[in-house]
Task: inverse folding
């Protein structure tokens, strides 16, 4: 308390002016450009809050109070839009507070300069500081703003929406409320809860199997290409790299055509006098076919990158180790088991786990292979029996406007991925040694 | 005697190795070959194929791709230039943003840096469309629905989250170079533009190209944000082609895949570095 009164007693009137209206103090110190910058920001933010921001923030808490009435011609509140605009207003408010603090700090800085008998900073000097001592802040300004608006804001919005009853029946013009309805639905034994359990089980199975499969095949290919008797390994390596280079969606849609009802595979089955198989079509018999094809296509797309990665790692192994092992009479397989495998597994653990996270959230595979398939026969709610949580989330929230349930699921996915990725990050040697590295 | 068994074993090993190599090559090559063949088929529909092979070949599909848009249903030419526009703009903007972020995160130690690192790490683990509903509403509020600029803003603005590869590269530049420049009186901005960027040309090229390639293969976001067929990007368009236009899909895919594949082959070294950066440097 005493500090504050001391501070207020010490501050010159210019600083007090700046505390009242941003930029005024700077103007009185003769820092015209800087003063005008703060003053216009102040004006813009103030007008924004008077005209929109303030009511937007209130709207954030009420989520709309006026339902549309077509008879009386009353336009209604749209809860979804109000939620995001309110959130935006809160972000602006935080930004305004930060700007205000820098403004006061700046005025205090100038006052101290004067006290110490130094000249006031000119605008050119300010620019120079921005390009030099404060380069990191200047450089990060645009990226931070962009990421905040297009990445953080949507995600915070998603988290909040999980705690409303928006979506399903409750869409515009109906008004929404804050509630835990979505969580109750997922945790209950109803159709939604049942679908969630089934999909979660398959999702975990998929992530484990596909990660293991891709890793084994990728490592196998790398070892094959690394064999001493392979001539022209660059030539052979080109084939997987080709598969890696083709945009993923082309490969996936291509495979969809290949396994389609009238596609080439079924054509040959027909020719051979066999029944056509429902590979990816909406049919109960397609379940394991489609899952298998998904694993195969995912391996086709991902193994080349794992191959490239493990090749890089293999080339880092000290060849002396192998020579020593050979002298001791170790067989090729023993060398692989005792030297190669531990080394590769040790140095790829972070990648392996990020692969696991990637596969857990592998949206593309079943989105492209089984576009629009919904398995009602097996009592799935707006999902197919191959869908992962992430596909279900898409069908719920983007295709069918089940916002709050979709958001709750995305939160569950988030918790799983965040726990895994932070665990990896903190454990990774790179994080621990970052400062010793340079 | 012993020598003979060794040479037999070696021969078997050779046979085994090369069979495996040929199988591997076949598995990866065949689907690509199939698509290329299909793009030269005379009749466009998947139903007219004899298994993997078209009945007759012609170059017509490629010409049709650009001249005949089937009454405005499949205007590939428009899609192509839409995508090119988005790709060029978002590549330029995104590269600047991500390089700045990576450089600062690599060279500077400041308050909030650790928090930022953790935030970006978690954000990067989110699939891009987690907040898609929100992105849609934001774009509506900004009046950018059905406009290509919405894609440019989104792609460019969200790239700094994935700055790790570039940071790894900047980390590998010896600190002494920067210190010498600072001693000579260069400002941090000058160090960045006059020393760091020229030293990191391969990284700049790599970043620009990966940024450039992304809009060609993203389906989700353009599908959500672009309503009119005339505004679509190539990926959305190709995704919406039915089986009866299979040859058109194949031709359109081959047409955009070839430049991207060539790029990848030229850049394979950088890509390997980028991939392993995750495992070694974090």
Result:
């Amino acid at each position: 308390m005493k500090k504050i009164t001391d501070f207020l007693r010490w501050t010159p009137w210019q600083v007090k002016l700046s505390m009242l209206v941003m930029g005024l103090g700077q103007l009185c110190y003769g820092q015209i450009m800087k003063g005008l910058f703060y003053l216009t920001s102040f004006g813009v933010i103030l007008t924004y809050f008077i005209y929109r921001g303030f009511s937007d923030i209130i709207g954030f808490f009420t989520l709309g109070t006026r339902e549309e009435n077509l008879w009386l011609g009353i336009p209604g509140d749209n809860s979804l839009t109000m939620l995001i605009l309110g959130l935006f207003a809160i972000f602006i408010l935080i930004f305004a507070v930060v700007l205000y603090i820098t403004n006061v700090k700046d005025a205090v800085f100038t006052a101290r300069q004067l006290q110490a008998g130094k000249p006031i900073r000119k605008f050119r000097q300010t620019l120079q500081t921005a390009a030099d001592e404060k380069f990191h802040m200047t450089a990060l300004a645009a990226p931070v703003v962009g990421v905040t608006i297009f990445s953080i804001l949507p995600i915070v919005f998603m988290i909040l929406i999980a705690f409303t009853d928006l979506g399903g029946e409750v869409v515009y013009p109906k008004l929404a409320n804050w509630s835990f309805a979505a969580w109750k639905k997922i945790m209950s034994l109803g159709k939604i809860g049942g679908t969630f359990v089934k999909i979660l089980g398959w999702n975990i199975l998929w992530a484990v199997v596909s990660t293991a499969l891709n890793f084994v095949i990728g490592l196998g290919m790398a070892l094959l290409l690394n064999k001493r008797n392979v001539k022209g390994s660059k030539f052979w390596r080109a084939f997987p790299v080709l598969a890696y280079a083709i945009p993923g969606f082309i490969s996936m849609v291509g495979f969809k055509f290949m396994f389609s009802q009238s596609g080439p595979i079924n054509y040959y089955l027909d020719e051979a006098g066999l029944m056509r198989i429902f590979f990816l079509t909406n049919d109960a018999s397609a379940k394991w076919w489609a899952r298998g094809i998904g694993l195969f296509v995912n391996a086709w797309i991902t193994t080349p990158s794992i191959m490239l990665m493990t090749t890089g790692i293999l080339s880092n192994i000290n060849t002396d180790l192998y020579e020593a092992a050979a002298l001791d009479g170790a067989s090729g397989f023993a060398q692989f088991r005792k030297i190669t495998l531990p080394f590769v597994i040790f140095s790829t653990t972070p990648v392996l786990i990020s692969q696991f996270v990637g596969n857990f959230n592998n949206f593309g595979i079943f989105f492209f292979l089984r576009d629009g398939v919904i398995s009602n026969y097996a009592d799935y709610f707006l999902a197919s029996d191959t869908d992962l949580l992430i596909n279900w989330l898409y069908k719920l929230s983007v295709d069918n406007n089940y916002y709050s349930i979709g958001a709750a699921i995305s939160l569950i996915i988030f918790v799983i991925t965040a726990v895994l990725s932070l665990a990896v990050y903190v454990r990774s040697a790179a994080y621990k040694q970052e400062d010793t590295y340079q | 005697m012993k020598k003979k068994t060794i040479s037999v074993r070696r021969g078997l090993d050779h046979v085994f190795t090369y069979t495996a190599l040929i199988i591997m090559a076949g598995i990866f090559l065949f689907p690509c070959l199939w698509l290329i063949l299909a793009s030269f088929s005379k009749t466009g529909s998947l139903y007219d194929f004899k298994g993997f092979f078209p009945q007759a070949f012609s170059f017509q599909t490629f010409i049709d791709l650009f001249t005949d848009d089937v009454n405005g249903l499949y205007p590939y030419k428009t899609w192509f230039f839409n995508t090119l526009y988005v790709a060029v703009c978002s590549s330029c903007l995104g590269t600047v943003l991500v390089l700045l972020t990576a450089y600062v995160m690599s060279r500077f130690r400041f308050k909030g840096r650790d928090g930022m690192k953790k935030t970006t790490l978690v954000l990067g683990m989110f699939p891009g469309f987690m907040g898609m509903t929100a992105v849609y509403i934001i774009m509506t509020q900004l009046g950018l629905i059905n406009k290509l600029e919405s894609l440019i803003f989104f792609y460019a603005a969200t790239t700094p989250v994935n700055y790790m590869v570039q940071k790894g590269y900047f980390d590998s530049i010896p600190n002494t170079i920067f210190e010498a420049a600072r001693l000579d009186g260069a400002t941090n901005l000058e160090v960045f533009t006059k020393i760091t960027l020229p030293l990191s040309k391969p990284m700049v090229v790599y970043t620009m190209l990966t940024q450039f390639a992304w809009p060609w293969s993203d389906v989700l976001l353009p599908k959500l944000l672009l309503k009119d067929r005339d505004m679509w990007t190539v990926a959305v368009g190709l995704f919406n082609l039915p089986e009866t236009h299979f040859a058109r899909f194949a031709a359109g895919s081959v047409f955009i895949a070839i430049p991207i594949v060539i790029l990848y082959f030229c850049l394979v070294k950088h890509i390997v570095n980028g991939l392993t950066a995750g495992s070694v440097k974090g």
Notes: Chain B has 13 helices and no strands. Chain B has a mean pLDDT of 85.
